[in-house]
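Same chain as my last thread, 419 residues:
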Amino acid sequence: MSFFWRFVPSHDLLRIPLLRWLVITRFFGDLFFYSTTLVLFQQQRGLNFTEMFFMEAILSSSILLADVPTSIWAERIGYSKMILIGRTIGLAGMCFFVSAHGFWMFALAEILGGIAIASTSGCESALIYAPLSPQQRNSQGSDAFALLSSASSAGFFLGLLTGSFLGAYSPTLAVAASLLPALLAFFSSLRVHHYDSAATAQEQKEMARINQVVRIAWNTVCTQPTLALLSLFRWVAFAITNAIFWYNQPYFQKAGIPIAFFGPLMAAAMGLQLLLVLRTTTFQKILGTRFSLMCSCLVPGLCYMLLTWLHTPLLTIVLVAGVVCFSAWQQPIVEQELNRRISDGSRATTLSALSLIGMLGKSVLDPVIGHLGDVGLDMVSMGLGGMLLLLSIVALFLIPQSKKHTPLPPDQATSIDKT
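reply #2:
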């Protein structure tokens, strides 16, 4: 255990109960066992590949439509309550997913899943930032977001590592087993609500001023367009790097790797990603924030390109792992850069508005990524690799060279306190 703690950045942050339960909730929320056998499960339940990819579009559309309304509601009723609502809806969505047969049942499950994601979008970031003092935000802000990201990676890693065994016996069993972590995420969100400090009557009155909060969020986006570009960058880069979890199977098959090893190999890649995300701050100190963000696109882009020509089992494993691992720095770096420029009074709404912009970009790009797969695997390597190399250049212009961040305009920082 002491060996593990050496890799956890600022693990003293976990002594704050609210942060600890947020990390636990995120871990269970991203723990599922069916990723390596999802295609087989959905085929057995009557879906073809076109319908499977259409489910991704339904999920993204649900997030887009629900993101801003749920965030406005979160500003009014409180972030922790919104997280609890989101986890409840997510649990219901998993129940529909387990019992789904045919297109419309799966579509309903994806809609509920999208609403659940939208309900927690921004709220977890807002809550994990709230209990930190101004000094801690400057010195440990990246570590706090890295802890949250590592919880996601750890949950996904555990699901990959163990899910193959369940899925090999029965794809339905792997999906049904995922109900347990969804239930634990719900119970953990109850503890988040318990430890979240109650707002005063004046604070509740301020949060209820929805129009004012929306105006502040909109002003933030308009006066700081870099925030919108950062969010767009994050979601586009995520769409490209996350595609490896769809295309890893044909890459492995082309290299002659047995199907039984797919899950453990991807679990090992996620384990390496977890180590890298836990050391995000260390690499930021060595490389700087700009170059760390650049490398999170440059290295995966090169790995994609090399997959065009290198097909031996060992090299294929290394290159696929490279795409998975080195993309790990994107989320905590971008989360920190976004949150440090947003006022506390409208944090969740602003984050969701920015997420909406990013998700629109991702939704446009997703069909292109799918079309590349229909054209051929080499086109996937060249196309996605080229996009990531281009994004690595863009990353250099998104974050200023100085480590100092741009302060909030005085009228924006204080407008939430005006009557």
